[in-house]
């Protein structure tokens, strides 16, 4: 199959859009934390742009999309250091170069572990984070990319569908976030937060903008499915943001900008697995679910005193799970012949398939993440000292401060 110029141009743009989501996440998280820890959490996102790229071009692309080994992982030798690939090589079944497909998937690998950082804000040492960043991708993220998108058993043997990352990105990151919360425990020092709401708004804008590349780009071509995913992305985010604002207004007595922004991000996360498989009317339903179920999950988390600092579990974990289950209910081949019909269209088995896929992700991500943190802690402390936490991680760990004192 020759290179398709239109598809290639589209995917270059989509890849750049997904890249901008990671700096967007840095601003989103940076605004939500306190003043003494803003640079630390922003650095955790930015450093993933570097470390995750090194890991991806070394072995990550091979482990995700190399020839299948046991249905779990790809052959690490297939694309090691991206060797054996020529600029004109076309990815099988697509009209884009292999290099471009690798670059697009790289951007997913960059942002997925960065999502988890919001859960353990103000508490993890930088050494431990670097080890976690590498280890988590190797033992959690890469296997699931292969199993769902790379020819592994969840897709090939079970029939799991995940258009742009409800399982692979959001459910995995959300459940890993919950594991880090349980492992690290609650923060002992507190700051007024969010400290910079305009940062939150800027981060939301960049995430929302980039998400069109995340979802529409997952069609991997310019066609009716990319257009469907594009409109469904906007619908999911908007309906969720409005729903979240209404709930805030009713229960907290005032509508807030932060509430709308968090709701919109929850909507983006929730529509992600279904964006190219459901009708716009289904996306409206998913948006309402995304603005209400993660909202309820966050209130539940607060009642349990789980210190998920920036509600990664509620927004991304619960959102991703809701999105996958909604896909099992609302998918229709009238929208995408390459998809499936969901439970509401008479196909019970597909809903069960999606349920199995998300349950495997929940169990694997939580248990393996917790075990990984335990192992890292045997080598280097995962949690910062009480003194460092009290002083703030920005200056204590990185020798930098976001704001100069007025005196």
Commentary on this structure:
Strands 1-2 form a two-stranded antiparallel ribbon. The termini are far apart. Helix 1 (5-32) packs parallel to helix 3 and helix 7 (197-216) packs antiparallel against helix 8 (224-251). It has a single domain, classed as Ammonium transporter AmtB like domains (Ammonium transporter fold). It has 407 residues and is mainly α. The longest helix has 32 residues, at 348-379. It has 14 helices and two strands, in the order ααββαααααααααααα.
Give the gist of this structure.
The protein is mainly α and 407 residues long. The chain is built from 14 helices and two strands. The chain has a single domain, classed as Ammonium transporter fold.
Task: Describe the structure using short key phrases.
globular, 2 strands, Ammonium transporter fold, single chain, 14 helices, 407 residues, mainly alpha, 68% helix, two-stranded antiparallel sheet
Strand tally: 2
Give the CA-CA distance, first to last residue: 66 Å
- Give the overall silhouette: globular
SSE arrangement, N to C: HHEEHHHHHHHHHHHH
Low-confidence stretches: none
CATH class call = Mainly Alpha
Instruction: Give the neighbour order of strands across the main sheet.
Output: 1-2
Write the layout of secondary structure elements.
Layout: H1 5-32, H2 38-65, E1 68-69, E2 73-74, H3 98-116, H4 126-149, H5 153-158, H6 166-184, H7 197-216, H8 224-251, H9 257-271, H10 280-304, H11 312-330, H12 348-379, H13 386-391, H14 393-398
Antiparallel strand pairs: 1-2
Helix pairs in contact: 1-2, 1-3, 1-7, 2-3, 2-4, 3-4, 3-6, 4-6, 4-12, 6-11, 6-12, 7-8, 7-9, 8-9, 8-10, 9-10, 9-11, 10-11, 11-12
């Amino acid at each position: 199959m020759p290179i398709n110029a239109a598809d290639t141009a589209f995917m270059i743009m989509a890849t750049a859009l997904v890249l901008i989501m990671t700096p967007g996440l840095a601003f989103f998280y940076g605004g939500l934390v306190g003043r003494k820890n803003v640079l630390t959490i922003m650095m955790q996102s930015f450093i993933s742009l570097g470390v995750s790229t090194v890991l991806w071009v070394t072995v990550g692309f091979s482990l995700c999309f190399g020839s299948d080994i046991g249905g779990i992982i790809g052959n690490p030798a297939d694309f090691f250091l991206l060797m054996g690939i020529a600029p004109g090589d076309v990815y099988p079944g697509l009209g884009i170069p292999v290099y471009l497909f690798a670059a697009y998937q790289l951007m997913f690998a960059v942002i997925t572990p960065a999502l988890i950082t919001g859960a353990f804000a103000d508490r993890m040492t930088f050494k431990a984070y670097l080890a976690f960043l590498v280890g988590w991708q190797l033992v959690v993220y890469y296997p699931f990319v292969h199993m769902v998108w790379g020819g592994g058993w969840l897709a090939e043997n079970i029939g799991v569908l995940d258009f742009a990352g409800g399982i692979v990105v959001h459910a995995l990151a959300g459940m890993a976030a919950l594991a880090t919360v349980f492992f690290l425990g609650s923060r002992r020092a507190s700051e007024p937060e969010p400290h910079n709401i305009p940062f939150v708004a800027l981060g939301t804008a960049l995430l929302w903008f980039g998400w069109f590349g995340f979802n529409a780009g997952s069609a991997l071509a310019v066609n009716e499915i990319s257009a469907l995913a594009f409109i469904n992305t906007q619908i999911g985010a908007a309906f969720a943001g409005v729903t979240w604002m209404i709930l805030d207004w009713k229960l907290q007595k005032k509508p807030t900008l932060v509430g709308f922004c968090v709701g919109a991000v929850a909507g983006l996360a929730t529509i992600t697995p279904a964006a190219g498989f459901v009708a716009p009317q289904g996306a409206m339903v998913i948006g309402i679910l995304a603005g209400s179920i993660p909202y309820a999950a966050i209130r539940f988390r607060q009642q349990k005193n789980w210190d998920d600092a920036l509600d990664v579990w509620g927004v991304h974990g619960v959102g991703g799970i809701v999105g996958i289950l909604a896909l099992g209910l609302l998918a229709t081949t009238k929208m995408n012949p390459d998809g499936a019909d969901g439970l509401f269209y008479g196909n019970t088995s597909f809903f069960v398939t999606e349920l199995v896929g998300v349950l495997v992700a929940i169990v694997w991500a939580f248990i393996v993440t917790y075990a990984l943190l335990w192992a890292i802690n045997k080598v280097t402390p995962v949690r910062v000292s009480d003194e460092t936490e009290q002083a703030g991680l920005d200056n204590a760990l990185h020798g930098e401060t976001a704001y100069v004192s007025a005196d």
